[in-house]
């Protein structure tokens, strides 16, 4: 994978894993911090994305979301989350169309993204960026297959493949297995960054990612 910031084709010497869910504002902010860190590097950085499903406990058997399902989060939690989002927006100089996206289910977006990592890895970073931008900058519903198809077209992916992947029960099951594996590894929230056994949780600043990746953590 080429470095998204420099466009270099040199073999990356450092590697970073990120566990994330598109519907999480802190994941979006974390990717903005990551982009700033990558821009500061002289060498490429290999980034490997792992999906994480924050809506799993609210999803009914038919795939719909139970908005009334208890998730342990009250109004005070969401107010604090909004304050934290606004603080990080200022810290990372990020514009956002919304601070929370509680009515959006990102599972189909993650299915599509997971499929792209397997079949079109050279286009994944552009697709990943397009999904985040659609939700957090443009306020679009990334749970809508038509939106995902539009985003795929924008980054040069075959739209029929993306539509088929979203509906493919085998791919959906593989994604669920991948999320379960992440939980077994001890990932309980997102974003989670991992580099050479070192772990950082939350929307950490670029300097923190630098220390994580370069071994000064």
Task: Please give a handful of descriptors for the protein shown.
alpha+beta, Glutaredoxin, 8 helices, disordered N terminus, 217 residues, 48% helix
What is the topological layout?
Elements lengths: L13 E7 L4 H16 L4 E7 L23 H18 L14 H13 L4 H13 L8 H10 L4 H9 L1 H16 L7 E4 L2 E4 L4 H9 L3
Parallel strand pairs: 1-2
Antiparallel strand pairs: 1-3, 3-4
Helix pairs in contact: 1-2, 1-8, 3-4, 3-6, 4-5, 5-6
In short:
It holds the Pfam family DSBA. With 217 residues, this protein is of the alpha+beta class.
Average of the residue pLDDT scores: 91
Q: Using only CA atoms, what is the Rg? A: 17 Å
CATH architecture: 3-Layer(aba) Sandwich
Question: Major sheet: size, sense and barrel closure?
Answer: 4 strands, mixed
Q: Helix tally?
A: 8
CATH topology: Glutaredoxin
Total individual domains: 1
Specify the CATH homologous superfamily. Glutaredoxin
Number of DSSP strand runs: 4
CATH class label? Alpha Beta
Proportion of beta-strand residues: 5-15%
Strand line-up across the major sheet: 2-1-3-4
Basic shape: globular
Terminal CA distance reads 25 Å
**Helix content range:** 40-55%
Low-confidence stretches: 1-8
Structural class: alpha+beta
Helix and strand pattern: EHEHHHHHHEEH
């Amino acid at each position: 994978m080429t470095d998204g910031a420099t466009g270099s084709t040199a073999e990356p010497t450092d590697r970073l894993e990120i566990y994330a869910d598109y519907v999480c504002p802190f994941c979006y902010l974390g990717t903005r911090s990551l982009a700033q860190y990558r821009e500061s590097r002289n060498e490429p950085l290999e980034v490997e994305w792992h999906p994480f499903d924050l809506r799993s406990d609210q999803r009914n058997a038919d795939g719909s979301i139970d908005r009334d399902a208890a998730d342990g989060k009250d109004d005070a939690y969401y107010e604090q989350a909004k304050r934290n989002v606004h603080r990080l927006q200022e810290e990372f100089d990020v514009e956002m169309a919304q601070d929370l996206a509680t009515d959006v289910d990102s599972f189909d977006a993650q299915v599509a993204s997971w499929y792209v990592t397997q079949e079109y890895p050279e286009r994944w970073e552009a697709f990943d960026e397009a999904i985040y931008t659609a939700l957090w900058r443009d306020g679009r519903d990334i749970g809508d297959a038509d939106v995902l198809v539009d985003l795929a077209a924008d980054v040069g992916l075959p739209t029929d493949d993306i539509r088929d992947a979203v509906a493919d029960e085998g791919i959906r099951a593989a994604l669920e297995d991948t999320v379960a594996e992440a939980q077994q590894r001890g990932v309980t929230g997102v974003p989670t960054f991992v580099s050479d056994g070192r772990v950082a949780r939350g929307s950490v600043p670029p300097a923190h990612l630098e220390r994580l990746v370069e071994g000064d953590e």
